[in-house]
């Protein structure tokens, strides 16, 4: 089994989901006492958040590159950023770190195609929805994207950082997100990508008003597929 390096702590609430779901998937495939080979570097999110607010993306690039390099130096054979927004830093990691990066957007695109979805509503931070690094990558893979208007994007973003990334999940926020999903459904979305790793904790996919792809689930599926490739090849031989 290959060893994955996870860049975690952004936020730790969703990093727990990654650790649990990766191990669960490996255990189901291999049985017995098998568990996943994971290296986790969990950052102090306050430092990352301060650079986000300051729009210091060069600083965040440097921070995540250093984290990814520590993981590779520690034995990780590939790395994965356990958050959507910080994939703004993916190009810096890919350029500077000599190990594959398993990209969350590619995982969502793969799952959308497998499930037959062609138009995804994207809900996440304001940067995820509006900056292009995320939606452009989906569009390049043949997935049409829809996002809320700018004012609603800012509202979604505020709930993420004032509540979700601090472990606060309220009925008011849940109802508002469902309302926004319904608006995007009316605009033509045939599914919604929960493109913040905490949104699935607020609105589990089975409770969404249209088919939902939880970015954690999609990313975990891609990570486990990569991790198990060597093991499955050995079994087939």
From TrEMBL:
What domain of life does the native source organism fall in? Answer: Bacteria
Keyword vocabulary terms for this entry: Isomerase
Do the record's keywords include Isomerase?
A: yes
EC number in record: 5.1.1.13
GO terms, molecular function:
aspartate racemase activity
- What Pfam families has UniProt attached to this entry? Asp_Glu_race
What's this protein's family per the entry?
Belongs to the aspartate/glutamate racemases family.
The entry's protein name is Aspartate racemase
Please tell me the species this chain comes from: Brevibacterium iodinum ATCC 49514
> What taxonomic classification does the UniProt entry list for its organism?
Bacteria, Bacillati, Actinomycetota, Actinomycetes, Micrococcales
């Amino acid at each position: 089994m290959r060893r994955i390096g996870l860049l975690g702590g952004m936020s730790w609430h969703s990093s727990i989901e990654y650790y649990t779901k990766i191990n669960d998937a490996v255990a189901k495939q291999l049985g017995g006492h098998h568990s996943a080979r994971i290296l986790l570097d969990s950052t102090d999110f306050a430092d990352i958040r301060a650079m986000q607010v300051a729009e210091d993306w060069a600083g965040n690039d440097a921070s995540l590159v250093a984290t990814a390099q520590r993981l590779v130096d520690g034995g990780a054979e590939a790395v994965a950023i356990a958050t959507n927004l910080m994939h703004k830093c993916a190009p810096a990691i890919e350029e500077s770190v000599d190990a594959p990066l398993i990209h969350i957007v590619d995982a969502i695109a793969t799952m959308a195609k497998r499930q037959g979805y062609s138009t995804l509503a994207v809900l996440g931070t304001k940067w995820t929805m509006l900056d292009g690094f995320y939606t452009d990558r989906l569009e390049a893979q043949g997935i049409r994207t829809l996002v809320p208007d700018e004012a609603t994007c800012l509202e979604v973003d505020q709930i993420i950082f004032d509540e979700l990334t601090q472990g606060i999940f309220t009925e008011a926020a849940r109802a508002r997100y469902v309302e926004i999903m319904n608006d995007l459904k009316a605009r033509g979305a045939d599914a919604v990508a929960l493109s913040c790793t905490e949104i699935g904790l607020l609105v589990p996919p089975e409770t969404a008003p249209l088919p939902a792809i939880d970015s954690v689930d999609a990313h975990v599926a891609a990570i486990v597929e990569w991790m198990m490739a060597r093991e499955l090849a050995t079994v087939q031989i």
